[in-house]
Amino acid sequence: MMALVHCGTFSFRSVVAAAASSSSHPSSAASLKFSQPNVKASFFSSPPPPPLLRFNLTGKAFPGGGTPETKESPLVAAGGGPANVAVGIARLGGSSAFIGKVGEDEFGYMLADILKENNVNNEGMRFDPGARTALVFVTLRSDGEREFMFYRNPSADMLLQEDELDLDLIRKAKIFHSSISLITEPCRSAHMAAAKAAKDAGAVLSYDPNLRLPLWPSADSAREGIMSIWETADIVKISEEEISFLTKGEDIFDDAIVRKLFHPNLKLLIVTEGADGCRYYTKEFNGRVKGVKVDAVDTTGAGDSFVAGLLAQLAEDLSLLHNEEKLRESLKFANACGALTVTERGAIPALPTKEAVLNALFSPVL
């Protein structure tokens, strides 16, 4: 059985250093090279463009004229929460699939290639001839934290239609994970239909709000949209910042406040605390698992890597939802996944293998 993830935003991301005055210093760029697509044509809503129209793209796309690559050189990379989770699961040895929509353009076909090359089933991808693949510019601060600037007006990921869903693929999922695709129609309705199909087929529903306020019309609409799917989810992963947002500034460290977000059908609520680890809440027990200390270079994708680590463990053994000892071990694994991801620049290039995670867990210092 596999984990299936539903696209919120799947895009090309340009990761750049902040202004010199902020003393930001991303790590050296990992090279990304793309060639002829190796994805079956039957996966697409229309044939790929002719080979002569294709080109190669490297991680240092912006420096030119022989300028040497530096820590401040922009890095062009694929990203997007659900896609990061899908690749993360596959890289850990699990089985994953992706559904969503990209533009029928060069970037869209490259993104399909990246999923295929990372052993993610991309049969659920759709290509829109009338909309572009989304672009996101990520600015890194010196501590590895980020600021996002989105180019979606609208982009193809926002335009997935309910009748474009691969329901056969969805019904095969053991776990259905989704994130931030509740903002606009028609993607919102497609998301809800996909989640219902998965739930009706017996899948566990996982949800990560992945709050990006600039994508929402208003803060109130963001709260309403996030909570609209909340009570259908079996597992919710949320950050401390998102707790503060949803509770309008209440104490994020007060278990009673966090419990307000717990609903009768929820099996597991996870609160991520960055480098400090995570807290967990179920109907039977709650607690905290400390994080793995590393030197952060780029925090992009850390939460998605955490989710991938947790879902990969859950897909193997759903009983850990009711066994605190097993759950804690799985969360240690997930914490290590997130920690390793922040030690490199870019999300997908930095997602760890299972071997790397196990080595980190048994090493005293990373």
* SSE arrangement, N to C: EEEHEHEEEHEHEHEHHEEEHHH
Say what oligomer this is: single chain
Average pLDDT, all residues: 81
The residue ranges in which pLDDT falls below 50 over 5 or more consecutive positions are: 12-69
Helix content: 25-40%
Count of beta strands? 13
Proportion of residues in β-strands: 15-25%
State the separation between the terminal residues, measured CA to CA.
33 Å
Supply the number of helical segments.
10
Evaluate the radius of gyration: 19 Å
Shape: globular
- Look at the helices and sheets and give the structural class: alpha/beta
Q: Biggest sheet, open or closed, and with what strands and sense?
A: 9 strands, mixed
Widest sheet, order of strands: 5-4-1-8-9-10-11-12-13
InterPro entries: Carboh/pur_kinase_PfkB_CS, PfkB_Carbo_kinase, PfkB_dom, Ribo/fructo_kinase, Ribokinase-like
Family: Belongs to the carbohydrate kinase PfkB family.
Catalytic activity: D-fructose + ATP = D-fructose 6-phosphate + ADP + H(+)
GO cellular component, one term: cytosol
Overview in brief:
This protein has helices spanning 81-91, 106-117, 167-171, 187-200, 219-230, 240-246, 255-259, 302-316, 324-341, 354-361, and strands at residues 2-6, 11-17, 75-79, 96-103, 121-128, 134-140, 146-151, 173-179, 204-208, 235-239, 268-272, 277-281, 286-290. By secondary structure, the chain is α/β, with parallel strands linked by helices.
